[in-house]
UniProtKB/TrEMBL annotation:
<keyword id="KW-0496">Mitochondrion</keyword>
<protein>
    <recommendedName>
        <fullName>ATPase expression protein 2, mitochondrial</fullName>
    </recommendedName>
</protein>
<comment type="similarity">
    <text>Belongs to the AEP2 family.</text>
</comment>
<dbReference type="InterPro" id="IPR024319">
    <property type="entry name" value="ATPase_expression_mit"/>
</dbReference>
<comment type="subunit">
    <text>Binds to the 5'UTR of the OLI1 mRNA.</text>
</comment>
<dbReference type="Pfam" id="PF12921">
    <property type="entry name" value="ATP13"/>
</dbReference>
<comment type="function">
    <text>Required for translation of the mitochondrial OLI1 transcript coding for the mitochondrial ATP synthase subunit 9.</text>
</comment>
<dbReference type="GO" id="GO:0005739">
    <property type="term" value="C:mitochondrion"/>
</dbReference>
<keyword id="KW-0809">Transit peptide</keyword>
Amino acid sequence: MLKSSSNVYTSTRRISFFVPSTRLNEFNKRQLQNNASLETFVKNYEEIQQYSAKFETSQHAAKLNSMEQASEFKFKPNVDVLADALNSINFKFLHDTNEKTAVSTLPDNTKNENFLPKIHFLLYDTDIRNLYNLLKCNVNKITSFEGNLSSYEISLIIKRLLYYNDSIGQRLKFVTKNKHYLDEEVDHYVKKLNSFSRAVYQSTKSIFNALSKIELSLYDYENIILFHYQRNYLNKAIELISEVEKKASEHPEQYQLTNTLWAIKMDILSQTNTNFWKIYGETIYKLNSSNKINFKYTYPHHGHNFQTLVKRYEAEKEKNFLPDSTSVLEVMIKGMGKHGDLTALDSFIESNWGIKNDRNGDKGVYFLEHFNIKKRMNGLLWPNENILISILLAYGKNGDLATALEINNLILDKYNCTNFLDASNTINYWILALRCSGLYGDALEKQLLKDVPQNELSDASGTSLLEIKYRLFDSVWQMSEKYVNHFNRDMIKLKIKYASSHELLRGLPKVHCNMTEITYNKMSLNLKVNEAALNSYVRECCLELARRGRFLDASQLIEKFVSSEQIVNELKEMLVEMQEAYARKRVKHDERKRQIIDDDDDFELW
């Protein structure tokens, strides 16, 4: 342990002003996009603190704590699974010269004599690229499928093209995520693969456009719409949904909007799609603006405010006997949150999952004892990862992050017996929760600096009211530790950015253990990235100690937790420079203090 590290506590980082508590009432505002109410923020912190105290003594927490296991670091340099996977990727297909310029492989006068037999043969070819290339180069002949191919064969073509696009997308994601493991041509690989992926999408889009000129099944339309929607081409997705709705009005016995299509339609038109969702003025996910729906867009069949969409869905659900669906529920949750209707949202969650939020009493968030999960819960309505994210976004949007976390923890306690959250999904959920708490604190800081006069931002005590910003993140982080057995690098980056100095120092041994654990370093190349993340964490801890003049503790910390001799030397050089600057500052401070004393003495003599 560091010398006296157990006694170190400062929840404020790089802050030197104080906001008097008498000004709290000036911040009693409704917290939404760009502003944060200090009063609401304090309420969130206090609720999380109270919940955490109860959570520590609960059976669920005891069960989670019993699952924690510690393992020693035993590096295996010869097990390079990731390196082998990257080396096995075949990049030869990137040199397809016909990808951007489709050239017909058949003369125009052959029509269907050779085209259709080739299609029949390639439908079952193991190499999907052959089918894709033939269709891409002969889009004008696709209309000949009608009457010559069965509906099953047309559906099979669509499914195989979707699979081909998905395989390229997964390869792109894998290479992009691990590009630092590749050689010096990494940028070329990623750029080429991105370009190829976009070109394949455009060609597949042209094929699907040609297929839409013949009679497709509702199942085919749903797959094609999902293809565009999942790639964030929302304009195309809503255009096809509109086309299906037109067909449904003309041929109701053959077409209707399924729950999946309704979920996509509501998600786009009410702008609850998480890709352009904002929390405290910051986007959660990045999305190319060209793929968004213009706010002036008019849906051809009816209005598209949230209330209208819900009423239309309820009417269609009853008319077409649609089953209940969690995909629709998650959109409704986000919709209620985006429109600030928390009362309706509380009732919605209570009726579906038996979790009540007692806003007027002192019970807080609790599970209804009379709610029989097995009897009341349809399998289709069992909560999942997207439900948790929707609840987090909906309440967080309205400055009620504590309620979101309490509800979601109860859902995990009561409904995760089916393990709908695995290790990866659990980490993704908590990354979003931590990011929301950090952004909430940033919004609070901006609001205070904007609204409080400069001459009222300091106090003789030197304590800052913004310490609550870090304490809230610390509370959420400590809550996440109960669910996440192994932190990943994204979580650690958030902790470096938003945690208090105390939490950074307290968590260093566990972060070190995590980043050097054998299960996290089975691949030798992975060690390099984990070591860099650990060194960044150690560096931030050193900076916090050095700012308080604790240079010896910082030096001991470097020696204990940094293995690279080069990094040790770099950090110690940084400490020497900071120590010199700190000493000069102290000398100036002492000189000013002596000058004040001398001035006072002169005044007494006078």
